[in-house]
Amino acid sequence: xxxxxxxxxxxxxxxRHRRIAYRCAFGEPLAHTGAPYLVEGIYRDREGKRxxxxxxxxxxxxxxxxxxDEDIPLVHVEAALDEDHRVASYEQVxxxxxxxxxxxxxxxxxxxxxxxxxxxxxxxFDSDEEALEAQY
Length: 136
Description:
By secondary structure, the chain is of the alpha+beta class. The chain has one domain. The protein is built from five helices and seven strands, in the order E-H-H-E-E-E-H-E-H-E-E-H. The chain has helices at residues 30-33, 36-40, 74-83, 106-111, 128-134, and strands spanning 18-26, 42-44, 50-55, 63-66, 87-98, 113-116, 121-125. It has a seven-stranded antiparallel β-sheet with strand order 2-3-4-1-5-7-6. Strand 6 (113-116) and strand 7 (121-125) form a beta hairpin.
């Protein structure tokens, strides 16, 4: 079954859509690791099953963000990252989701780390509390 992303209007309002994401660091420079998921824009497990979209914010990227689809158990995401020899480390973060054309509150823009894949913008925070406070 295909994952259905919320329409842009569903991300707006007083209750920001929050999701768990994973900020990942490459073990070697990208030229040596080969990362087809950065080109495709989708992170997949070892069997090729979709985990969720990938975001980068550097060129060349030294790290990337995986936003697991909501129906994917987080233990499955972590197992896939543990098995990926290109991933040196990862950490769980909280992401606030925005449509690319949507205005971002100043606190979110100032305190969050921006990740943009052209279709969705995610601002990440170390904790849910930080993400909530940044919105006000």
